[in-house]
Amino acid sequence: MSDYMFNLESHLTAEQNAALAAVQSAAAEANLSLYLTGGALRDMLGGFPIRDLDFSVEGAALKLARDVAKKTNAELVSVDELRKSAELKFESGVVCEISMARLEKYPKPGAKPQVTPATIHEDLRRRDFTVNAIALSLNRASRGLMIDPTNGVSDLEHKEIRAITNYTLYDDPVRLLRLIRYRARLQFTVNERTWQQFLNAREAGVTESIQPRSLFGELKQIATENDPFEVLKALDEEKLLTLFCNGLTGAKLNAAAFQKVAKLKTMIPFGSEVPTDWYALNLWCLTQPLSSKEKAALLEQTGMTKEEAEPWQKLEARSKKFEGVLKEPKLNRASVIWHTVKAAPGEEVFLLSLKSAEKLVQERLKNYFGKYLVIVGEITDAEVTDSTGVAPGTPEYAAARETYTVARLDGRIKKPIPPEPEPEPVIQPRGPFARSAKPKQV
Ligand code: ATP
Ligand code: MG
């Protein structure tokens, strides 16, 4: 196996590796040339966590996406017929994009591009920034071969974002926003010429030609960033945030809510998961201080559909309902609270932590994050087997673990005390001084 393949597989989660294997085998079966591209390679080489997987195919990408969806039961989330690109969501929650390797020609800034099929080399050269224009071959004959026609690897080493051509930011002006987002997320510097291009393009007013749907796509990306506030602040500093909504600037940014969410996130113990619709929660934070007129402007300027607006518009009502459940007196045991909060969507839980004025609700949520998740996260298979006699991998194991977890949470079983470590053996000195050396007292 090439070093890059090894590096990649060890960098991906088990679920991402399974998605990678599924796409690879479907492409091999269809005899299509497949490459991993975009963020996954940038993040692998740069040592960042990999968020989603982007694949490029020389040829029939949409057919491959449909094949993979059928074989794996993945959901076909969206299809871009113009760019021949589809987004898939696997049952494990892993998201991936399968796109046709292509050329895009822009008749004028922000206009609909003319799309033609291309080789992977051509495809990489039409992208936005060099760090995003690296591919890894997943084809049998050249598996693990790195393709880097714009020297992205070197820019990654220097932590620099560089536009691929002098027209990059003019052709598709949403790239001005992407540039600021990557700079904020990766904490990279922007290459001097690229920065000059950014200033000139902004001065020339190219952002006016960004299509509402492109703005919505970007907004969705921002809302699912690990630290959306950093990006929003950076966009505001560059005077680009009002593109989304005229009133959205300065104090309207709702720093307090974003900071509270960031703090709550740090309370999730390592290894625990709280599945959350970050888009809904972060857009709620973003829109909370806006007037109804400003909210309407956001919908209009981003061409947001009703289905896209609902998750954040209805979030407060949903979480209010959950508040009613969480304050019920019958939730009087740790295990019952744990079950109840675990079953609720993360965005409702976080919003309640952020907003609820009910003391009991706040206390229960605090215990959930600060105590119950910690206890549950520490339970080992060995501990479950010792207590219940059921071994992992057997059909009864899940139920045994559940019973044990409930007993631990409710304090009916105490945390097992780890055995005392064996005392270190006393090493008798050897050699010419052995007789005179005193053995160590233990
Ligand atoms: P993330 O970690 O946020 O997914 P990403 O770099 O993978 O980052 P995507 O939006 O998933 O970003 O896009 C995948 C790749 O497609 C990018 O790395 C880039 O090469 C290319 N790309 C996406 N949008 C554009 C664009 N507007 N112009 C040029 N290339 C783009
Ligand atoms: Mg991506």
Provide tags for this entry:
11 strands, Beta Polymerase, domain 2, 21 helices, disordered C terminus, alpha+beta, two-stranded antiparallel ribbon, 442 residues
| CATH architecture level-2 label of the domain at 1-160 | 2-Layer Sandwich
The small-molecule ligands in this entry are: adenosine-5'-triphosphate, magnesium ion
Radius of gyration: 26 Å
* Cα end-to-end separation: 49 Å
Broad shape: globular
Q: Kindly state the number of beta strands.
A: 11
CATH superfamily of the domain at 1-160: Beta Polymerase, domain 2
Please explain how this structure is put together.
This protein has 442 residues and is α+β, with helices and mostly antiparallel strands. Among the domains are: 1-160, Beta Polymerase, domain 2 (2-Layer Sandwich), CATH 3.30.460.10; 323-409, no CATH class. Helix content is 50%, strand content 10%. It is built from 21 helices and eleven strands. It has helices at 3-11, 14-29, 39-46, 61-72, 120-125, 152-157, 168-171, 174-186, 192-203, 212-223, 228-237, 255-266, 278-287, 292-302, 306-313, 315-326, 334-343, 346-355, 359-378, 381-388, 397-409, and strands at 33-37, 53-58, 75-80, 85-89, 95-100, 102-105, 114-117, 135-137, 146-147, 160-161, 189-190. Strands 3-4-5-2-1-8-9 form a seven-stranded mixed β-sheet. Strand 3 and strand 4 (85-89) form a beta hairpin. The longest helix is centred in the last third of the chain and has 20 residues, at 359-378. The radius of gyration is 26 Å and the shape is globular. Mean pLDDT is 93; it is low at 436-440. The site of adenosine-5'-triphosphate has 13 residues, from helix 8. Residues 38-39, 52, 54 line the site of magnesium ion.
